[in-house]
């Protein structure tokens, strides 16, 4: 955890709720430009930087304990509510990985984030029950007719939420000047409207997570086959590659396992952690020194 602390504080030094909001403002704008509405193919270096910043935000949100397990949706301050979107933004940004050699791992990681986002929304009752149930399902065992019925219903809800978001963003842009300046009010745009904007974003994001999970599950076999062949530029195999195993994400069966996977992806350090304390290391060094001295004595 110490290495994770170093990385998170390096990305967002001395982060309090104010600085966290500033980092969120920058990250959300960058997400919209790079991932949600890209003009051109995403720049991988920028994607990597955005993922690092979003992970740092997630780390600080956890450390500041902005969300309590005992809280209900109405108990969460509007100023904090936007941070529930961090996990979704992480999923979308990671899933935009353009390097095919790294895409398999990125898609698997994104699937964990989408699932975790759904679990967070389910706990607070943010989204429609059918959407949360669809996102929680590991296997699509619904009959085709039911699947089509749910998809149509989701499309209608998604359009409603997206229209609300567009309306509130446009209104905030007119009244405040910057639609992404969270916590700023003016004209007739007030806190209640901002809260409704964030809730609409959350509900729309749950639906997008369902669709993107479905796309990812269809993409996984191809990526696994590509990895089994040795990568995109590997020569054609002499023998047919082995059949891919069951998609990894299908083995996520409970909330505790999902939470552990999420924490491994967000909070794991990118540098090795020490496996012993300083005292243990010193004791080991002393024992090793004594062993070498004994060997030298035996040689005399």
TrEMBL record:
Q: Which GO cellular component terms are attached?
A: cytosol
Q: Which organism is it from?
A: Noctiluca scintillans (Sea sparkle)
The protein's GO terms of the molecular function aspect are: protein phosphatase 2A binding
Q: Which residues form a coiled coil?
A: none
Write the protein's name: Immunoglobulin-binding protein 1
What biological-process GO terms show up in the record?
Answer: regulation of dephosphorylation; regulation of signal transduction
TM ranges = none
Pfam families to which the protein is assigned, alphabetical? TAP42
């Amino acid at each position: 955890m110490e290495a994770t602390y170093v990385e998170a504080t390096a990305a967002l030094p001395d982060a309090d709720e104010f600085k966290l909001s500033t980092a969120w403002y920058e990250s959300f704008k960058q997400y919209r430009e790079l991932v949600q509405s890209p003009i051109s193919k995403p720049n991988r270096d920028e994607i990597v930087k955005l993922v690092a910043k979003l992970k740092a935000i997630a780390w600080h949100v956890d450390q500041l304990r902005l969300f309590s397990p005992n809280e209900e949706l109405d108990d969460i301050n509007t100023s904090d509510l936007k941070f529930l979107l961090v996990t979704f933004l992480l999923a979308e940004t990671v899933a935009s990985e353009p390097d095919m050699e790294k895409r398999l791992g990125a898609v698997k990681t994104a699937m964990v984030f989408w699932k975790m986002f759904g679990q967070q929304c389910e706990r607070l009752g943010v989204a429609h029950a059918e959407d949360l149930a669809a996102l929680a399902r590991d296997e699509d065992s619904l009959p085709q007719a039911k699947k089509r019925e749910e998809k149509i219903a989701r499309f209608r809800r998604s359009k409603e939420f997206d229209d609300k978001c567009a309306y509130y963003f446009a209104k905030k842009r007119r009244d405040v000047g910057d639609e992404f300046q969270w916590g700023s009010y003016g004209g007739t745009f007030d806190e209640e409207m901002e809260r409704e904007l964030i809730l609409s974003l959350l509900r729309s994001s749950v639906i997008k997570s369902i669709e993107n999970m479905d796309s990812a599950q269809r993409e996984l076999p191809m990526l696994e086959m590509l990895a089994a062949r040795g990568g995109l530029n590997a020569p054609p195999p002499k023998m047919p590659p082995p059949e891919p195993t069951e998609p990894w994400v299908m083995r996520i069966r409970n909330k505790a396992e999902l939470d552990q996977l999420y924490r491994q992806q967000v909070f794991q350090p990118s540098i090795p952690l020490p496996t012993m304390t300083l005292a243990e290391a010193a004791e080991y060094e002393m024992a090793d020194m004594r062993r070498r001295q004994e060997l030298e004595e035996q040689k005399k």
